[in-house]
Design brief:
12 helices; alpha/beta; 8-stranded parallel β-barrel; globular
Length: 294
Amino acid sequence: MSTEQFRGLGVAMVTPFNQDKEIDYDATEKLIEHLVTGGVDFLVVMGTTGESATLTDKEKRSLIKFVIKKNDGRLPIMLGIGGNDTNHIIEQIDDFDFDGIDAILSVTPYYNKPTQKGLELHFKAIAAQSELPIVLYNVPGRTGVNMTAETTLKLAHEVPNIIGIKEASGNLNQMSYILRDRPDNFLVLSGDDGLTLPQMSMGADGVISVVGNALPKRFSEMVKLAQQHNFVEASKIHLELIEIIDSLFVEGNPGGVKAALSILGIVDNNLRLPLAPISESAFYKLSLLLQNQQ
């Protein structure tokens, strides 16, 4: 399976809400246009940044249908489908209409803390049920379990429709082993905005980004420079953006990036409980940092 369409900058889209905490479809359309014109390479819908844990099944179907319609085939779309009940994920895959979707992003099961063997069998079961290619998502800081390089590589070599991984462990050694021993065309994407440049310098194919929601043009420039192995110019943008990136995560994601999007006039600063907007002090600092980006 070709992985070309998922190289470069993918953005884990936020889900805009109005004051009543319902999905704001006008703001969603505005965000899509912001990303498309900003040079993003692909969209990721209903990931963690999209507050997918707080969306009902009906809302998820409505949102993805809307994104597909407004995207109108301009960018590839990756859909987040994951959880800690393997059978439930398989049922979702069986019941979902994937017309307009190009791949699935599936996070390692959270809370259960499965063994490496459990992770291997979990993803093999999902892949066996899916007609779409699957990108693994390893984010131990959220899930409580780290999928080792050995497990990732075993899946990469043994399961044809597992085409890549979003690696967000923050462990450069772990990513190094995956990059060294991966099969041809197995996609390795950064899951950490602040580590994107060093990881791409080692051979990573791109990033699924949070900051790309707010600053797609600038972050896309950095990613494209890195793809061209122009790390001198790419590092200038990395250093320019690093404090903004850190500020987006100081009180959690997507609270920071939704605040940034509200400062930029794209999305209102509304989240669903248990998430809450960032503090006034964090908001003020982010406002100052973003002044030079407008």
